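User: Quick sanity check before I run a bigger batch. Here is a single chain. Can you write out its predicted 3D structure?
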Amino acid sequence: MRFWLFLVLAFVVILAACDSEDEVLPSASVGAQSPSTTETVSSTETGHLSSSPSATEATPTSSWSTYEHPSAGFSFQYPADWSLQDYATEPKVRIASFNLEGWTMSQYPPGGIVIDLLRLPASQVKPRPSDAADATLGGLPGWMRTQPGGGDGDGPWAKSVTYAAISGDYSYSLIAAFEDAGADESTASAVAESFVVQASQ
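Assistant: Done. Predicted structure follows.
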């Protein structure tokens, strides 16, 4: 009788141990995943992006086109659906958020953005404006300045942003003009970040 009682007790203990393992292992697995699950839920609820985006998320410039000037020694990226006007014989390129064919500077389409990228001899460039802020153009230390209207306040646009930097004997500039004074400057900023000056320049 004692033998059977001992056998039943041993069976109950083994069963209890198996049950507790079944409970512990899944909760440990869930516990390992719960920080990201909690982060995703709270991110969705608060409207904030996760601090570490997944590898599958595309960067804003991943689908952009790349342009390399044949003689001026610089390249940059720009939105693939923008138009580009190549001044191959001059160290200058113009890109725009609208079709540049037949466009005149007297009027911008609603929301239009035009960006000029150019290279000039450093000796021909005016000194840095006193109201400019420190900035970089393609990693080169330089300055940035936002102004209402055109460069001198008399252009057909509502706002302009200029980035400028010097490398070697040349000054490189990005000048963005916006039809809307409240326009988002992030595209112009991303073009400036993508700007690259070849090492030989």
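The chain has two domains: 1-56, 65-197.

User: Great, the batch can go ahead then.
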